[in-house]
Write a structure and sequence with these properties.
It comes from Callorhinchus milii (Ghost shark). The protein is mainly α. It is built from 5 helices and 2 strands. The chain has helices at residues 2-13, 16-123, 127-141, 149-182, 184-197; strands at 212-215, 222-225. Strands 1-2 form a two-stranded antiparallel ribbon.
Length: 229
Amino acid sequence: DSVCVGNCQRMYDGEEHGRFMEKLEARIKNHDREIEKMCNFHFQGFVDSITELLKVRGEAQKLKTQVTDTNNKLQESGKELLFEMEELRKCRLQQRNIAATVDKLTLCLPVLEMYSKLRDQMKTKRHYPALKTMEHLEHTFLPRVNPFRFCTIMVHNIPRLRQEIKEVSMSGLKDFLECIRKHSAKIGETAMKQVSVIPLLCIIVCVVRKPVTIISRVPHCVCWAAAGV
């Protein structure tokens, strides 16, 4: 520190001050020239970079416009495609529903036809065929369509229909027996008359050249003709 202070003092006291200032000015000018050279060298590159950047910005703006237009067109085309895809999905769903409905109807129609046949048989008082149809319906057809509501209704109605057939049959049987009881005397009288008129067995012996079997035209009467008796 003392050396620096001494040098500075000598420089300002003597003629060294002028020489120092000259050298300092020369040094400053030299550095200024170096800085100017460096700035000139990099300034041209900077200008070129700015020019290229401006060109790129213009091209980027054009590209942005093109991308925006393409995106808008794509969005419009996509909307139409999405609409068509939605319509296709609905059509396929309807097609599956129709196919499922056809399959279910294929299972249900025989059951409904059998049940209609059962009702017709009951309406015409054909009770035995109605019972057979009911049994076939209950054990064969209804289990195939068990989940459906009408099937549950039919299953609940079958015992009632069976009881209805039983009651109608018993009523008919009672009416028949009552009719027989009322007319039993007349029926017995008619039967006795028929038995007394028609002989149980008629044997007619005729002499002919060869045996011939003759069936009498009288009901329940068999006439035999035998040769040589």
